[in-house]
Amino acid sequence: MKNILLAGSFGQLDPLLDAALEGLYHKEWNFYAWAPAKDINDPILRKLNADRKNFFRGPGVNSRKSAVLFFLILPLLRIFALIRFLLFNRKRPAPIIIVVGQREKLILAPLQRLFKARLFFLVLPGEKSFKKGGLAEKTYLRACRRAKIISLSPRDRENLLRIGVERENIRPLNPGIRITDREQTDLFRELAGNGDFHRKFFTIGTIADLNEKQKMEILFQAVNTCVSAIPNLQLIVVGDGKEKKNLSWVAKKLKIDTRVWMISDSPAPLSAGQSGKEGTSMSAAKKWLKSFEIFVSVADAPLLSDFSNILKAMAARIPVIAPAGAGFEDIIIQNKTGSLLEMDLSEMLARQIIRLSKNRNLRVQLGENASRLVDKNFTSDIMVENLEKILLEK
Questions:
Q1: Which helix (H) or strand (E) holds 306?
Q2: For the chain, which residues make up each domain, given as ranges?
Q3: Cα–Cα distance for residue pair 237/207, rounded to 1 Å
Q4: Between residues 297 and 14, which one has the greater pLDDT?
Q5: Can you tell me whether residue 172 is helix, strand or coil?
Q6: How much is the pLDDT for 209?
Q7: What are the φ/ψ torsions at residue 268 (nearest 5 degrees)?
């Protein structure tokens, strides 16, 4: 029997990871889940037909007060988890345990030593790190020595090595998107066929969580610089968050508010901010997304969704510009499948945008190379195959 116990907050993960877990399910893996109460009925766990149980993981560890409380009760949390696993293991022998979340990893680490369980820690892009040199980081490092670490980002692997995790314990896993050849061809046909729109505007697009740390103001400054060289330039920002209102103010301050579209990625229509344009729902946003000439990622600390968005743009043959050193090095090969730039200064980003705007052949070449790379290394089928190999290795 191929049994997987999912432990932690698997709810509301990016569809990229959902597709990988579904792929294992269709390969006849059986799923069980220990999840916090808020995630116990998450759709992905229902899709996996997982036997779900509530998992108490104690208080958070991000503030000093809650971290002290967590470590005071950590022995009790571990004893409870060990007893629970002992009962679980009697009925479902030899499970593989995949753990997401900081507290869950600290609680479940002893399972490997006491039960010789096959323990895997899944490190997601954007996962918060512990305070350097603190008790939490030291405890996490000891936990990592008892598990195999699955990492989807070069940046995360560098951070793991920095805190002392052994390289031999780290298992790289390329992210992959679910896209068929037919979907890819149809999308490209739509992109190429919208000629009237393309003659009117040169469109830069980005998709971002506007609650997270971003280089969005750098992008706005670059757009402002590019206007003289690209008179028909416009920027479409798809996303929501607390920074949205502030960004509308920045666009107005730079006098590019008539060129910037702030589009909600939620179903409900929202105001387009200071641009004076009509609010736009997600269905309308998809129409605009088809018109991107260039996709720019502004993620300073990328989430899994940022990787997913970049791969989707690459699959659609849209040239991509992303920050250097943010963890996209496995996906974007410099000047072959996209561009990696230091985005602390807007001038460098502006120069690259202008360069691409003036050279259609270069845009086509980068897009074609990117699409082939996604087909070769970054599909959900490949991700499922590689994940299964990691889980089954001796």
A1: helix 304-315
A2: 3-177+380-392, 181-377
A3: 6
A4: 297
A5: strand
A6: 84
A7: -80, 140
> Regarding predicted confidence, which is higher, 145 or 352?
352
Kindly tell me the number of DSSP H helices and DSSP E strands found in the chain. Answer: 16, 13
Helix (H) or strand (E) holding 96: strand 96-100
**CATH top-level class for 3-177+380-392?**
alpha beta
CATH class belonging to 181-377: alpha beta
**Using one digit for the tens of pLDDT, what is the confidence trace for 86-126?**
888 887 776 899 999 889 999 999 888 777 789 999 999 88
Q: Which helix (H) or strand (E) holds 183?
A: helix 181-193
| Cβ atoms of residues 206 and 297 within 8 Å | yes
Of 25, 300, 331, 385, the closest CA to residue 152 belongs to: 331
pLDDT in tens, 175-204: 999 875 434 444 444 544 454 544 588 999
How many CA atoms does the CB half-sphere of 246 hold within 13 Å?
A: 8
Q: Do domains 3-177+380-392 and 181-377 have the same CATH topology?
A: yes
Closest CA to 123 of 17, 46, 207, 43: 17
Residue 50 tokens, joined: 């997982």
For 149, other C-beta atoms within 10 Å of its C-beta total 19
Average pLDDT, the chain: 85
Distance of CA 226 to the CA centre of its chain: 29
